[in-house]
Every structure is written in structure tokens, then in C-alpha cells.
Design a protein that fits this description.
This protein is 80% helix and 0% strand. It has one domain: Na+/H+ antiporter like fold, CATH 1.20.1530. Helix 4 runs antiparallel to helix 12 and helix 10 packs across helix 13. The chain has 318 residues and is mostly helical.
């Protein structure tokens, strides 16, 4: 059996199982939210720690990977913001939700299980998770809480700086960021762990992939079956950035900076993942462009799974 089939069948099998359970009303949207919380708060921090702890980190590749991703992220965020303001008529706060949905991929539920299944992909992928978990979340949170005075009044600069600082602090407190950073420290310092502790970490880490993929399918089916697809104009304008322009530019820059095929392949995978369900959660928390974000996520999940399968079909055999 080919490596591609061996990779895709478990991944898409878990996704379709989740979607089928929602179609049969075995689980609903509330169940998806509860399981998502378990994956985000418990399982994935363990997975991030364990994968990073056991993966060697190449400093030179790390720098090139980070530089390529951040430059591409700046371009994609700017493009999404301008489109949201000029063509969708959104406020700065609403445009923040649009930017987040166009730059944050489903790295947690979908990306990590894929990266963990391909030799050499886990370490660079988790490095990008750190960047996304801090920078992208900080940008999205800052824009969605942007001061309404828009630069007028004596206290506006102070309010802007306070907003940015609060967004950065919130991003750094993410359980997945903390878990992955802890794993990076353990890997660099060669931290010895007793066998029972190591076994517990590995056991918990193994729950993240299957449950995360099941929740992804459950959440996607719930969006479609509950008629929560939302506005489609935003999806038509933003998904080309998320699924095509962002990964293409990131891969080009990472290859330019590193000439490393593995780092380039991982960068394209990471930035080309379907939009994260967390986009809907964040937009709902801040009450910004919820219908538009749901359209980007629901349509983007379906299209993104197709483009992801095509990408893996092209890359894995090579």
C-alpha cells in the first residue's frame, strides 16, 4: 500500500466519521464545542510538548522558516485587511475577524496529525504553530478590539498600545503555545524524564490526532447542516488568499531562505490548511463579522480538504 494511502485513510476516515455522527444526530454542535475544548486545552498541549521534545531543531532552518513565514504573513494580512475594508465595507474590528480567518489555518485539529505522520515534518511544523499561535492570534485579537476612536483624542495612542499589549499577552497564554515552548526547552536542554512520565506524555499526545480530526468533521458537518454557512462574498474574496496565495508565497520565501525541501513542504502545508474553526469562536467572542467568518470557514473547510489532498498527492511520493 502506498505511503499516501496509508496517511490519508486514517486522517479522512476520522473526519468523515465525525461528519457522519453529526448527520445521524449522534452528536451536535454543543458536543463539538466541548470536545474542541478538550483538544485545545488538554490533548494538543501534550502533543505539542511531546512532538517538540522528541524532534531535533535545526537553528539555521528555524531562522529561514520563521523569516519566510512572517514576511508572507504580513503580506497576506495586509491583503486581507484591504479587501475587507475596500470590497466588503467592514470596520477595523470586523476586518480583524476577516484577517484572522484568512491567515489562521486548522493546524491544531488537522495539521499536527498530518505532520506527526510524516518523518521530519513535526519539528518545523510545530515551530510554525508557535508563530501562528502568538503572532496571528495577537494580530486578530488586537484588530478585533481596536479602539473605536480611530486615532482621535489625546488618549488614543495609549489605548492602541494597551490593546496590542493585551492581545500579545493573551496569545502567549495559549495552552498549545505553552506546551510547545515547554517541549522546545526540553529538547534543547535534553531534559531527562522518568519512564512513567514519558509514557504518560506519549499516551496523552496520541489522543490529540484522532479526537481533533473527529471534532473537525463534526464541526464542519454542523456548520452545513445547521445552515450556518453565512455570507459567501467574503469567502469568495478571502479564500484565494488562504488556500493559494499565502501558501505559495510562504513556500517561495522559505525555499529562498533555506533551500530545504522539507521546510518548504511543511511551510506550504501549514499555510495552505483550511481556515480554523477557532476563527468562528474568536469572532463570536468579540462579536465581529460572525456570519462572514462562518462562510469563510465552512466553504474553506470543504475546498481546503480538497486542495490539501491534492497537495499531499503531489508532495508525499516525492
Amino acid at each position: 500500500m502506498s505511503p499516501l494511502v496509508s496517511l490519508l485513510v486514517p486522517l479522512f476516515g476520522a473526519i468523515f466519521l465525525g461528519a457522519g455522527c453529526r448527520a445521524l444526530n449522534l452528536f451536535d454542535g454543543e458536543d463539538a464545542r466541548r470536545m474542541s475544548r478538550f483538544v485545545f486545552m488538554i490533548a494538543m498541549p501534550f502533543a505539542g510538548f511531546e512532538f517538540m521534545r522528541s524532534s531535533p531543531v535545526d537553528g539555521e532552518i528555524l531562522v529561514g522558516l520563521g523569516a519566510g513565514y512572517l514576511l508572507s504573513l504580513a503580506a497576506a494580512s495586509t491583503a486581507a485587511f484591504l479587501i475587507a475594508r475596500a470590497f466588503l465595507g467592514l470596520t477595523i474590528r470586523e476586518a480583524g475577524a476577516a484577517v484572522f480567518s484568512a491567515t489562521c489555518g486548522n493546524a491544531i485539529f488537522l495539521g499536527i496529525p498530518i505532520a506527526a505522520s510524516v518523518e521530519g515534518w513535526a519539528s518545523p511544523f510545530l515551530i510554525l504553530v508557535l508563530f501562528e499561535g502568538t503572532v496571528v492570534f495577537a494580530i486578530g485579537s488586537a484588530l478585533m478590539t481596536w479602539p473605536e476612536e480611530d486615532g482621535e483624542g489625546p488618549s488614543s495612542l495609549e489605548n492602541v498600545l494597551r490593546t496590542i499589549r493585551a492581545a500579545v499577552v493573551r496569545a502567549l497564554k495559549s495552552p498549545i503555545v505553552l506546551g510547545t515552548l515547554g517541549g522546545l526547552v526540553a529538547q534543547v536542554t535534553h531534559l531527562p524524564l522518568p519512564e512513567p512520565v514519558s509514557g504518560f506524555l506519549a499516551f496523552m499526545a496520541r489522543t490529540a490526532g484522532p479526537v481533533g480530526l473527529f471534532v473537525l468533521g463534526l464541526s464542519a458537518a454542523d456548520l452545513l447542516l445547521s445552515r450556518k454557512v453565512g455570507e459567501l462574498k467574503g469567502a469568495a474574496l478571502l479564500l484565494p488568499i488562504k488556500l493559494l496565495a499565502f501558501p505559495a508565497l510562504t513556500a517561495a520565501l522559505v525555499w529562498l531562505f533555506t533551500s530545504d525541501p522539507t521546510a518548504t513542504a511543511v511551510a506550504a502545508l501549514f499555510t495552505g490548511l483550511p481556515p480554523a474553526v477557532a476563527s468562528i469562536v474568536l469572532s463570536s467572542v468579540y462579536r465581529q463579522w460572525i456570519a462572514g467568518v462562518s462562510g469563510v470557514v465552512s466553504i474553506g473547510t470543504v475546498l481546503g480538504l480538497c486542495t490539501l489532498a491534492i497537495y499531499l498527492f503531489l508532495v508525499i511520493p516525492a
